[in-house]
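Kindly inspect this today.
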Amino acid sequence: MTTQVLDVYDSDDPQKVIEIAVDTLQADQVVAFPTETVYGLGAAVNDVTAIEKIFEIKGRPESQVLTLAINDPSALTAFAPDSSTLARRLARRCWPGPLTMVVDATAENSFVQSLPEEVLPYIAPQGWVGLRVPSNEVLLTVLDKLQQPIALTSANKSGEADATTAQEVADQLGSELSLVIDGGPTKIGTPSTVIKLNNDKITILRGGALDNHSLVELAQPEVVIICTGNTCRSPMAEALLKKKLADKLGCPIADLNIRVQSAGIAAAQGSPAALQAVQVMHEQGLDLNDHESQQLHYQTARDADLLLTLSNSHRRAIIGEWPEFEDKTFAIDPDGGDVADPYGAPVDVYHACAEQISGLLDQRLPEILRLQPPENLLGDN
């Protein structure tokens, strides 16, 4: 077989290269793709003929299952409808990226259960499926055009070195492949980390681009408190919540396993906290001298588990901009009231504001504590 190698970035018509890749997949063929980690061999997920070819090409035992490459983190729940809070958190923060998550796909409404029966032994033989959203625009574009997941594994002979360039793929597998998409050298050059998620515990099945420390950091829940300028109400709320959590959990603020930050919907970058806010917090043993205001950006809102706003107008503004965050954006007052802005007022108004915020945070505290991951998150890894 003559292998066609198409360089997507050196082509006069990159879109044509994408179309050829999609057509090849739809014709029961295997295609080699770039990812951010290593090059991979891919087949359309509902195409058992092409999937079997992957195992023939690699010389890989069929007992070693394939990962599914999907095109969006939000697709996690289509494959694992009962996915845990931790799984959804990692999907938000790590995808697209070098993390493969093995999740339970046995629910009747899982997309996996709609696949041809003969495909399941190759991707979910025990009801668990590996999922990844690759951080590579070429592969993501192919996934969008194909409109179905791609069964994926590394583009090398079983037991041989991983391929990080199209030439390395051609050298190892060229005579057995019809198409290699050349997207240049891979950015990371190390396989994805593979983890299994079961009852909010992580089992590392294969080490890779994300180390244990990174996984623990990424698994930490996060609360973001939002006001307008991020100089008065939300900095005080941030400091108060950190202190309440530290007291409740019996640890220093620096050792909290729940991250807390604040932001504004119309904040100038880097402004200090209002002097009155600094004074009121100082009287409670809390330091706002190093606070710098920040605007609420999409990534911050996306990564958060909970967005607490000091007024309903802030909540409406966030949901108006990003409707997908409605189910995690709430006024800090469980009864839906507002905390008035003390900006420019005397210090006694700030005292009253801080006291109101403190009481509302006490009401929210049990809900926030439930976000914690298990103490022994990585189990025996």
